[in-house]
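User: Hi! I have a protein structure encoded as tokens and I'd like to know what sequence might fold into it. I'm fairly new to this, so please keep things simple.
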């Protein structure tokens, strides 16, 4: 399967709305649970504004027929520090087919070439084993666990930080 990243656009809003109904998306991302009314519009607007000021970027992950497979995101771009946080959310029907690995590979290449970053980071829930496997396959290095990183549904959750630098060995 060919996986492409295209700039997030209004045409992706319905697919984004369906994505945030998925229990795993709610469990392993920072999307509020339950999402408040208008969340998808606000989420999309945040990426549109970030694209305009250079602090965020959002892509839809699509196949060769332009079918929505998920999101590839840069929620935090720090141009001065030349660092970026990256993330990905895969639609349930696209999981287990290598989509996340290919999308993160494209997103990482974009960050190193287009943004010229010196550090790319992933913040992954300690319980998200699938996402940790994707990070490893894409050449990211586990750096440690950040305790009580997120507060969601009245609970604190730990997160792992994974990074990749431009001179790291290529992925397996």
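Assistant: Happy to help. Inverse folding works backwards from shape to sequence: for each of the 172 positions I chose a residue that suits the local structure. Here it is:
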């Amino acid at each position: 399967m060919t996986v492409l990243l295209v700039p997030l656009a209004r045409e992706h809003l319905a697919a984004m709305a369906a994505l945030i109904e998925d229990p795993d998306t709610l469990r392993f991302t920072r999307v509020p649970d339950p999402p408040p009314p208008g969340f998808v519009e606000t989420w999309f607007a945040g990426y549109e504004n970030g694209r305009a000021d250079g602090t965020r970027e959002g892509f839809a992950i699509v196949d060769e027929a332009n079918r929505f497979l998920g999101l590839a995101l840069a929620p935090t771009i720090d141009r001065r520090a030349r660092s970026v946080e990256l993330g990905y959310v895969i639609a349930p029907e696209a999981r287990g087919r290598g989509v996340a690995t290919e999308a993160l590979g494209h997103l990482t290449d974009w960050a190193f070439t287009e943004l010229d970053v010196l550090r790319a980071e992933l913040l992954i829930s300690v319980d998200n084993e699938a996402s940790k496997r994707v990070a490893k396959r894409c050449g990211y290095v586990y750096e440690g666990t950040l305790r009580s990183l997120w507060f969601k549904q009245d609970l604190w959750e730990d997160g792992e930080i994974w990074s990749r630098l431009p001179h790291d060995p290529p992925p397996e």
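A useful reference point when you look it over: The longest helix spans residues 99-114. Feel free to ask if any position seems puzzling.
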